[in-house]
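We emphasize that the prediction below concerns an isolated chain of 287 residues; any contacts that depend on oligomerization or on bound cofactors are therefore not represented. The input was used exactly as deposited, without trimming of termini.
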Amino acid sequence: MFPNSTKKLYGRGWRPVLYIYGVAGLLVAAFFWYFFRERPETHPWSNEAEHALILRGREETAKHAGKQIGAAPVKELVLSGNMWCCCLMQWGTNIGWLFLMTWLPRYLLDVHQVPILERATMTMIPPLIGMIGMFCGGSLTDILGAKLGVKWGRRLPIAGSRVTAILAYVGCIGLSMLPAEHSLNTPWVFVGLFSIVAFSTDFGAAPTWAFSQDVGGRQVGAVLGWGNMWGNLGAAVAPPIYNYFLGENPTLSDWNTMFGICAASFLVSAFCALIIDASKPIAPEAD
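Result of the prediction step, given as a token string:
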């Protein structure tokens, strides 16, 4: 739509990147199609001993694996306060998180005058740290679920991770008040704080998905889709919110206001996380 402006900013580098993304997507799709099955015991590489191990303790549920699940429990989803808390939790999370994927490069340029190549490296680091958080959050919710039950085994990791994201954004506001020459008021320190936000966001993602499995049962697809839709709506309204508070030429005060908005969004998410109850199914298993 704006080839001249885009070329002035980024040269010719964006087309090869999209080619790489497209080819990578096709390779992942082919890999998934070839290697994955609906149930692990139906995989041709799975032997009889593995079949027995997989089915141990869940023979009853395995008997119903081929049965039709039925229509999505729309009424139950709409009337469930439990699910609305989950939806609002994901909505607030994405408003606070999407800043890292949209305005972070502009922030590093405007406030810290980071050159474009170094800026690209800095922007890459938080999502990579987030990947680590995903594994850590999944492991912890497994441990807590076994010790405390799924109710608190899901609540605590999600709420706790949102609190650390809040503290990171508050830290951004505090450090920005330091003199420009201060050793803590440097772009790499802020990248560290943004990495904490990314780690915290993904740390809570795994227990959020586990919550959907807990309450969804055989309707897990509908439950996951319903909650994720509201999370995506949060991501959809985030850019207009950022634009409103930052404007065309944001000042340091505008950036700090934006950090406050992101922290408040995570606060909403943390509050909702303390209300959700993974021990309450969305619909009877018989359905």
